[in-house]
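Researcher: Here's the sequence for the chain we discussed earlier.
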Amino acid sequence: MNKNSKVALVTGGSRGIGRNSAISLSKKGIDVIITYNNQKEKADEVVREIEANGARAVAIQLDVSDVSSFDSFVSKLSDVLKVKWNQEYFDFLINNAGISNHTPILKVTEEEFDNLMNIHFKGVFFLTQKLIPFIADNGGIVNTSTGMTRFTIPGSGVYSAMKGAVEVLTRYLAKELGARGIRVNTIAPGAINTEFSGSAYMENPGLKDFIGSQTALGRIGEASDIGGIVANLCTDEMGWVTGQCIEASGGMFL
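Model: Thanks. This is the structure I predict for it:
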């Protein structure tokens, strides 16, 4: 196996936590491939920022809800790895892409359920399955969950249930990939002040202050609170951590 550069793949890397994770990885000397769905300009901005940090970066379009597109994506990824890095493998997969949802269980439609399932669980499952052969030995996977698998907020039931499935999948992946030295962990953010849940904050002007009042560290989280943790999970210093769910919520609803 010809390995020269450490490379991470971050899905949904054009905004929010994905963007901050990609930039944080680059600051640790890890090159980054990000995916975006339709925000190409924002993705290109992230690539430029990473390159300004002295790392290499590429953005590739991917709709994580469309499993039928994954073979085409893997082919593009393979080409990018060969052209840009002269290697066949990458080291770290960060399954970050997602959408928020605040629909009460009684009002969730089948279409809404299926969309959340496709993005947050089915897409994560099958994309990871497709990419495992391209992850280098002793690499890692970081899956994204939510603090709402521990505490409950009305309206987040379906979203959080999908994330609960991801947490279980993480443990099984850790067990099945351990022989190759691949570590698999989950990061579970609390409430984060990004456009991901921007509509909820706009509709409820006092929500951020309420969240801060219920958080041990006294404020709502920022993307910069999470990206560094994701990047650290991709370092040798965290090499003995696998199969774990790390909640990063500032102590929300303790």
